[in-house]
Amino acid sequence: MQIPTYSGRVDKYPPNNILLTAAINRLIYHIDILCSQQLTAVINHTEFLRLEASWLSVFELVNVPVAKQRVNIKLLDYSWQPLAFELNTAFSIKQTRLFNLIYHQELNTAGGLPFGLVLIDHRLKFNADDEYDDLYTAQRLAELGEQSLCPIVLSCDLTFLGDNNNNQWIDLNKMARILQSEDYTLWHLLREHASAKYLYLTLPDFILRKNYQTQVMGFIFYTDNDPCQILWGNSAYLLCMNIIREFERISWFGFLRAYDENGRNGAIIQSLNNGMPIIGKIDIPSEQENFWAEQGFIPFSSIYLSGQKGFFSNYSVQKLNYKHNRQLSMLQTNLIACRFAHFIKMRIRNHIGLYDTIDDCKQSIEQWLKKYVSEVDYGEESIMADYPLKQCAVAIEADPDDPTRYLCQINLRPQYQYEINESDIQIAVSLAAQDIG
To answer: How far apart are CA 375 and CA 7, in angstroms?
Structure first.
């Protein structure tokens, strides 16, 4: 936008002259233009857009209609750079600030509220110029999630797969060749890491706010309607909003991939609070969703005809070699496993001094778990949510690496399976010897 100049004088016009009025109006117009340019320079600055997108996304997240006593949202003032520095330089994950906050101060402390999920407002990308590599930092985040029994969700930048060219995303063969190339060796190492099943990457970005229009706001704000001024949001927020809605609806996570005959609940993404429909930076049809899921991403895709957007798969970054293990990598499976692990650890801590032997502790856990076991394969969602397990087994043994602790191994078989083969969830919970007796 060019800055207009005006060098005319208004004092040469007689009072009440129409030319004087026109000159004043023109000066006011020029002032409006200057104010518009100054405001545009601020609101379209990269850092301002980043802050606006983060806070608008948080606004959408905290305004999901749920009972506030059922869902707790905590904001951590921790930017990506210091987080990457700490994760890359710490000798052990257990020495990091984030592990201390998530595990020690909440899960491992009496009266604490365990974190069910951690959302990181960052888009993973290849950043050779940065001091710390995003992919290695992501691997450390996966280790953090595993050790603190808490899935980690963030998103993937479109430039992760090369140029920011929306057209190339349509060519799935090209995308497959890119991801299988030697340039993505670190990506392959991340996917093969044992902890990667706790890391989830969403894509693509979505429109949080369209570009501003000309409007009156104390002065007339003029805009050039540049499409580059559209505000893009992190799709990890959309996934977390779906999880919160589903927990409010059914008090469980087993139906995150499903939706009813009316196109609601579970996987379907609802409109934003301002009524704006969900529009992705690229439009992924549901027929292509499985491709991206196999590559380690969680895409939100469009349903044919209705155009509704949803997360119809939610596999982790981890690359799985056996089909019967695919569902162990799903987000709802991890949420279920971690939820049971949280309650078991809290239950044992609350029963300190009541167990005489390890067998007493084992039997107590088994009896508690069996309250959630049923042989029913199909039923109402509310019934399946009340009895989410088919089988359970518990084993407690001494920790070979620490004589002051025990390892509690728990096998759970979820009630509702999306694949033909059934798989068991294996949970390992570390217990202090003094907690058992």
So the answer is: 86
